[in-house]
Amino acid sequence: MSSQPVQGLPLLPGSSFRDSTKTTFHRSQTLGYRNGFAFKRLPTVGIGGTRLYVNQLSQAELDELSNKRPTLTYGQPKQAPPSDFIPAHVAFDKKVLKFDGYFQEDVPMSTEEHFRIRQVGIYYYLEDDSMSVMEPIVENSGIPQGKFIKRQRLPKNDHGDHYHWKDLNRGINITIYGRTFRIVDCDAFTETFLQSQGIELNPPERMIFDPYTELRKMPLRKYITPSDFDQLKQFLTFDKKVLRFYAMWDDTENMFGENRCFIIHYYLADDTVEVREVHERNDGRDPFPVLIRRQRLPKKFVENKGTFPSCVLEISDQEVLEWFTAKDFAVGKSTTLLGRSFFIYDCDEFTRQFYQDKFGITNLQPIDIKKPPSEEIKQIIPPYNGYGFLEDSLQNCFSLIPQPPRKNIIKMLENDHKVLRYAVILESPHLEDGKRRFVLSYCLATDMISIYEPPVRNSGIIGGKYLGKTRVPKPGSSTENPVYYGPSDFTIGALVEVFGHRFIIVDADEYVLSYMESNLDSFPAAVVESMRNHFAPRQAAKEALKKKTLHEPDTQEMDSLIEQIQEHMRRHNYLPDSTMHAAFLEQDKNGSGLLNKVEFFALCDHFKVPVDDPIFEKVNTYQPVFSWGRPDKIFQLSESFSVLIAMKRYKKQ
């Protein structure tokens, strides 16, 4: 049974007959891929799989015709290579045809316009044959404009045909979704493309504009108002023109009153006045800038009876005889505004120019209202009471909560653990103080002085710390500007007065001389030369003693000497006493490790050690180098024990 309805029957239920054996009614695929690109192909079968008999060639027939060539005399021709396939979206990418047009729209609900002309731009996209309609945005049109028809394939008729670029031309009408658009012109690219495809273009037409829009563009009518002055003219003439005055309110007559600065604004547009307060930093007042809001201020009132409650009832406009105007304000004049007297001392440049042009006043010079500064009371620092350091005591006079004085951190880091030491004696009329010796230490990091007295046995004086670390002022310096002792004040023979006690410098450490030579800019030349002269004899004696001193023997030489002494002991049949070590330690009463020559040989004779033998003379050659001027101590106790060690070894063997 055929699936087509019987010809001539109406399309009513029961009048159409279909083949019941057919079960597939899908449409055949029309899209495919070739060489990696999507392309469109024509369907070969219809809905239900029915073969479409149309007057068209298949793709195989088209390929055969494109490769077929005329037959030559000498054999078949070579098959030409097929041309490259370029899809439409690649060949026509970003190529758009643009037409200018308009359409007419009826306006039934308006008495001023009966129709409206709306201009549009018609865009045709060659890559997929789609179209869009855009309406340019007109300012203050009241119509939502912009994208009128979105991009899509637009139908041309009811048969399913779509608009093609061959259907577009200048001077024609096209209907899209029931609206008729008139194409009047196109751009240069569109004109060139259509002519290259063999389409004859119509001549361009003139664009028609909306009559109501053109009417709105006409200039407004100009009305001539009367020349007499009125409020509207005043507002239009002096709008945003304000006179600015700088005033001061003197309220010192009242309790807790003061001088407060304000700014008076006079608005020329409506003769209103506004008073604003000028706030200063930390003035202790709430941040309310407006003292008198903008309003017309009365100048003269109707005289009321004494029983009129003026503190309760407000004054109406009928009770005001005169209002404040611009001529009531002037620089150097006091003005009473709502019971407050303001003294105007200055104004801005616009106000000066306005008064000069309007009233002819030119002497609006600013007035200095600053009071002369009060006499500064000199701060008297109380005298130093002697407790603590002077810098710490001064901090109690500068602030309620004293802060520690600032320290020179760089100086403390550079001179950390650097101390100059001097040997001093006490200058005193008492004879028992003449033998006392002190060590004066000067700390370079903090400029403090400390004095220490070494304890001496059986002297009757307890030694130890004599003066803690403190800064010592020079005699004659004042408490307000003290001058302290420095490293340049200490030299050999100098007198140092420390809180009423006088000390004389008799000696110094060798580090003092080396520090002075490394910092010659900080010391006077006389101080450095005095210190060099003091250390010159000592350095000369040390160099001479170094020249006479022999080098200490090495280990092998000392072992050889011990073996010789042991052999000498065996030949003389000497039996050493075990108390010899204790005797040498007992003889060294000071614990210095040194014995003089007389004591050493006396002990050797006591224990019958043959020191007169030539082999013992070698012990005298190993003499150490000593300092502090003790040339009589030439034998060191530890080296004299070498004889005992040799004898102990001989005894063990």
UniProtKB/TrEMBL annotation:
**Compartment annotation:** Cytoplasm, Cytoskeleton, Cilium axoneme
Please state the protein's primary subcellular location: cytoplasm
Q: Which domain of life is it from?
A: Eukaryota
Gene3D superfamilies, per the entry: 2.30.29.170
Which residue intervals define the domain EF-hand in the entry?
Answer: 575-610
Q: Which residues form the signal peptide?
A: none
| Domain DM10, chain residue ranges per copy | 93-198, 239-359, 416-520
Q: Name one Pfam family in it.
A: DM10_dom
| InterPro entries named among the record's database cross-references | DM10_dom, EF_Hand_1_Ca_BS, EF_hand_dom, EFHC1/EFHC2/EFHB
Q: Which UniProt keywords apply?
A: Cell projection, Cytoplasm, Cytoskeleton, Repeat
User: Which stretches does the entry tag as region Disordered?
Assistant: 1-21
Q: What is this protein called?
A: EF-hand domain-containing protein 1
**The species this protein was found in:** Phrynosoma platyrhinos
